[in-house]
Amino acid sequence: KSLSTTDYKSKRHLVKWQAESSHGPKIPYLGMPFMVIQRATYECRHGPLHEHSYSGSMSKKVACPAKAYVKKIVIFTDPAFRVEEKSQPRYKVVKNLKAAIARNENLSVSYRVYVKFPGVECHEGHGFDESDPVNPPSAVPKAD
Ligand SMILES: [Zn+2]
């Protein structure tokens, strides 16, 4: 499954209103319920899987631990599911949403991708010249 997926029905996902994460991207309160349908990790191009030859005669292997974390979410945008105020109860909305999904209703949704790029301090063993871009990461996505 890749980041192009739009499938939120074949697997059960938690209904969320916001998401905190120690290393992944944070998702703020949107006023609408959402589900995380895909997660991916991108390694730095100097990461363990990739050997990198520097220009010139010197070839050096580094194992940079920096990673970018990606979350793809589906947001349920129907006004019936909106809860503008964080303080309002949301359990009924979640219940109605789950029931609507179970009935296979055609819901209005939109998709968003959140990315948390590693800070410069997360990289080890290599520099940052202009010919050596860090973002976007060049590694292949890996489902976790
Ligand atoms: Zn790096």
TrEMBL record:
InterPro entries: CaRF. It holds the Pfam family ALS2CR8. It comes from the Eukaryota. GO terms for molecular function: DNA-binding transcription factor activity. This is Uncharacterized protein.
